Amino acid sequence: MAKMWEGVTNGITDSLADDFNSSIRFDSRMYKQDISGSMAHAEMLGNKGIIPKDEADKIIAGLGEILADIESGKLKIDMSCEDIHMFVEAELTNRLGNIGKKLHTARSRNDQVALDLRLILRDDIDEITALVKNLIGAICDKAEENKAQIMPGYTHLQRAQPVTFGHQIMAYAMMLLRDLDRLNDTRKRLNFSPIGSCALAGTTYDTDRFFEAEKLGFTAPCLNSIDGVSDRDFCVELIYDISMIMMHLSRFSEEIILWSSWEFKFIKLSDSYTTGSSIMPQKKNPDMAELVRGKTGRVYGDLMGILTTLKGIPLAYNKDMQEDKEGVFDAVDTVKMCLKVFCGMISTLETIPENMKKAAQKGFINATDLADYLVKKGEPFRSAYKISGKIVADCIENGFVLEDYPIEKYRSLSDLFDEDVYTAVNLDECLNKRISFGGTCVKSVEAQIKAVRESL
Which entry of 15, 72, 156, 436 is annotated as an active-site residue? Predict the structure, then answer.
C-alpha cells in the first residue's frame, strides 16, 4: 500500500519495519474519536474558508458514512494500514477522491493522535467513574445490611478492638471516593484540545482552534503548540489514578481472601465468583479476588512503563510516544473488568455473623474497654492496663473470656471491680460506646453510609 507520507522518501519500507512501525492493531480502537475529531476539523476548515464549504460538507458526510459502515460491520478496518488515522484518511480519499485529500490541511498526525487519545481517555474516565460509583453503592448496601454485625478489628493482623462489618468495609468506600476525586482532577487537566498545534509549531493557516475545542467538548485549546503535541501527563495521571484504584481493590481482595478462608470463615462468597480445584473436591477458591490482587501488579507495570518511556524524550513529538497507548489502554481495560467483577462479588457475598462475633470474643478485643472501666473508677491508665493484661493472661490460661471471668477473680486484682464490669466488657456495649465522629457504633456507620450516598 502506498504511504500517505511518501515524498522526500520513496515510501518503500521493509515489511518487518512496516510491522514494527505500525500501531493500528492497538490504536484502531480510537476510530470513533478519530472520525469525530476529523469532522470537527473539516467543519472548521469550511467555516474559515480554508477549503470550500461544500467540500467540507462532503468530507463530513463521507466521514459519517465511514463511521456508520465500521459500526455496522460493513467496513472492516484494514490492519495493514500504518495507523487508524491513515486508514480513515485513505478510505475517505478512496470515496471522495481529491476532496478527501484536503482533510489533513492545517493539522499533523502529531496533534491528531494527541487529540484522539485525549478524547478516548476522557470517555474511559467517565466509564471508570461510573463503575467506581457502582462499587461504592454495592459497598454501602452491604454495609447497611451489616451495620451492627460485630467482628474483630485488626492491627498487625492481630485482633485489636471490636468494629462492625459495615464499618470495616465502609473504609473502602472512603478510599474509592478519593479515587473519584483523582479521576475528576485528571479529567479536568486532560480536557484541553491539542488539535491545531500541528507538528509542533502551529500553522500558517488562519484556523479557529477555539471552535474545534468547543465543538469537541474541551475547555479550551492547549496554550502552547509544542506542549500540545508532546504532553502525555494525562496518560501518566490516569494510569496512576487506576493504580490507586487497583491498590484499594487489592487490599480489599486480601481481606476477602482471608475472611472467606476456613481459618476465618467470616464470609461466604457466591459460587458465581469462586472456582473449584481440579484435584481437591472440597475447595472453593476466591479466584476473582486473587486475580484482582494479581492484576494490580500488571497496572503498576503500565505506570512504570509510561514514566520510563517519557523520561528522556526531548521536545516535541518522537516515535517513542507511540508506546503510550498499549500501556494506558491495558490499565483502562484491566480496571474496568476488575471493577465490574468486584461489584458483583461484593453484592453477592454473605456474612457469617456468629463466626465474626465468636472471633471477637476469643480475641479479647474488649480488653481496652476493661482498662477504661478501671480508669473511670480512678485507676491510673498504666496501672489499669497492667491489671487488664494479667486478667487476659489468666483467661487464656484457664479458658475464660472477659464476659464470663468470675467476679471474685476480677476483685482479687482490684477492689474497683463490681458487677457492672460485665456490662462494660459486653461487646455490643463496647461497640456502641464508640460514639466519636467516624467511629464504629451503628449510628456512626449509618451516618457514613448516608454521607457517601449523598456525595454520589
Answer: 156
